[in-house]
Amino acid sequence: MVVLNKIYTKTGDSGETALGNGSRVAKHSARVTAYGTVDETNATVGLARQHADGEMDALLAMIQNDLFDLGADLCRPDMEKDAEAEYPPLRMSEAQVLRLEGEIDRMNGKLQPLRSFILPGGSALAAHLHLCRTVSRRAERLCVELATMESVNGAAVKYLNRLSDWFFVASRIANNDGHDDVLWVPGANR
């Protein structure tokens, strides 16, 4: 259980922050940038949920919880030392990736195949889901970059890769099952 009695601690005033294992790093480190962008993705999901209801809202709520799990995973370096930790670190799992894949397949089964690229837009929910997609893609790129320098849980990277696909398919569902998608017309304004 997390208890936050005081919101500001002043421990970051020097430009450093603490990771989940207690080590201190620069706030601009690749790891902090990666999990900060996961947090940004989560905030965009919160915006999308303002336009969602029913099952879509419930699915987005699950994703928000997963994104907190993902941030907890990324803020804890040294995966090889997990067994030594006083408390087992929270790590993303393949089950979370498989759940997204199942949801993508189920939603995509309702849609006609694409014959054009889609412009981000349509309904308010679809537009917000496209924003979620692009921010989650950035989070994925940053996690992949981090993995070239430090250890990163492979399931975390897979999750982000599937998540952007999830947001794409969900945006089509939000556009009247793709019927109201805004299609790209190459060279339309030349």
Polypeptide structure, described:
This protein is mainly alpha-helical and 190 residues long. The protein has a single domain, classed as Up-down Bundle (Hypothetical Protein Ta1238, Chain: A). It is 53% helix and 5% strand. It contains five helices and four strands, in the order ββαααβααβ. It has a two-stranded antiparallel ribbon. A two-stranded antiparallel sheet has the order 3-4. A hairpin with a 5-residue loop joins strand 1 and strand 2. Helix 3 runs parallel beside helix 5. The longest helix is centred in the C-terminal third of the chain and has 24 residues.
Number-wise, the strands total 4
Give me the CATH architecture, please.
Up-down Bundle
Count of spatially separate domains: 1
Q: Which segments are poorly predicted (pLDDT under 50) over 5 or more consecutive residues? A: none
* SS-derived structural category: mainly alpha
Layout of helices and strands:
Elements: E1 16-18, E2 24-26, H1 30-49, H2 54-74, H3 94-108, E3 118-119, H4 124-147, H5 154-174, E4 182-183
Antiparallel strand pairs: 1-2, 3-4
Helix pairs in contact: 1-2, 1-4, 3-5, 4-5
Key terms:
190 residues, mainly alpha, Hypothetical Protein Ta1238, Chain: A, two-stranded antiparallel ribbon, 4 strands, 53% helix
Task: Provide a short characterization of the protein structure.
The chain has 190 residues and is mainly alpha-helical. The protein has helices at residues 30-49, 54-74, 94-108, 124-147, 154-174; strands at 16-18, 24-26, 118-119, 182-183. A two-stranded antiparallel sheet has the order 1-2.
